Amino acid sequence: MISDRAGNFLVELSKDTIKHFLETGKHMVKPEGYPIELDEQLGVFVTLNKNHNLRGCIGYAEPIKPAIDATMEVALAAAFNDPRFPQLKKEEFNDLDFEVTVLTKPEIIEVAHPDQYFDEIEIGRDGLIIQKGYARGLLLPQVAVENAFTTEDFLEHTCMKAGISADSWMDESCDVYRFQGQIFK
Question: The domain 4-103: what is its CATH number?
Fold first, then answer.
């Protein structure tokens, strides 16, 4: 994965990107002198919390862009384009806690029977993606810990995030993927 230095840089970058947009209405130029490892294509999520409550969370599950570019994009998306929340206002900025999660590439979990998911998924280590047809839901590894989910709870909530019934993870037409994440705050 990435170094602590690079992860902490991404947290500051997400703050700076949002602050710059709030102050100027313009996209910030990619800074110079960033850790070179951030040129690697990685999945990245930016989570904004306000007073210990979710205020925005958007990201790329797949490694489709260099981490530095992905972080700048999803920071703005978390602040201004998360459909669950109104656009961030300037007055809210100082109340925000910033979190960047850098993801490993998702891998499908192959099982002969749905009960085997209980042996394959580790709470606190794994994040989940569940896909059934065009429906797709993702929950980061920390969501299960923060909500004291069991493995079954985690599977069910990921299904609900996809907009499908909570027990869809037991359906053979449903794909379950896991990934790991490095969390930086």
Answer: 3.30.700.20
